[in-house]
Amino acid sequence: MELYNLLEKVVQHDTTHAKWLNTLSFMENAGARKISACEHPSEVSLIQLKHAAEEHRHAYYLKKQILKIHPEICKTYQSNELLAATATRQYLHALDIKACRYLQQHFRLSGEPLKYAAYLFVTYAIEVRADELYPVYQDILTKYSSKVMVKSIILEEEGHLEEMIHQLDTFSEDWKLHAEVILDIERLLHNRWIAKISEQIMQPEDVQ
Prior knowledge:
Distance between the termini: 19 Å
Strand content: under 5%
Helix content: over 70%
Largest sheet: none
Oligomer: single chain
Mean pLDDT: 93
Low-confidence stretches: none
Order of helices and strands: HHHHHHH
């Protein structure tokens, strides 16, 4: 199912919508934890700290938005409180593993340098995705006069993407060639994730 049509279905049912927000919150939190896990023991840049902090704040913000829909659901990240829980949990982890394999092979990296390269390319791919997903979601929220808003996240994600491009420019002159490979990997994982959510949405008794 195309993303716009999927999200239209999502926002029209409160429990489904709450689970979607919770799923996004889980992803933002997982991203923040991945960024922190990639930090060098001592050589941590200001921008890495900023990204981790902002991704954690996005996770918190999205959780708070759930209260506008229903105050008593999706209080944790238990599988029954997420959409397509298995695919959701695997998404970022699989991207990280596949990206590391590629970067290790093409840049001959290991240890801390490999962690840093993975941080750059995986975060870049996720920011490209966020730049596509959140504006579509906000358009639908506006269309249905929802109390939920993600405009503040859109602005910060745009800033993150610019910052990642700047860091990648410093990392490698031909980073765009390698980034395309990582983006292709992410696209496959994203499509699988959306397909799994669509399957669940088509069984409304499971999510509403």
